[in-house]
Design brief:
mainly beta; Rubrerythrin, domain 2; four-stranded antiparallel β-sheet; 4 strands; 46% strand; ribosomal protein
């Protein structure tokens, strides 16, 4: 299946300052702003907010 520009690959970076990242895809139509998700940060040992890095 071809890669689509409507679902780009984005990098989520931890706000805890540990350097932990996640890579995911997002829908530009449903989420035009920067994505923010609470995910597990192994370096911090807890769930923290991850924000989309550009």
């Amino acid at each position: 299946m071809a890669r689509s520009e409507t679902r780009p690959v984005v990098t989520l970076r931890s706000t805890a300052g540990t350097g932990q990242t996640y890579v995911t895809r997002k829908s530009r139509r449903n989420d035009p702003d920067r994505l923010e998700l609470r995910k597990y940060d192994a370096a911090a040992g807890r769930h923290v907010l991850f924000r989309e890095a550009r």
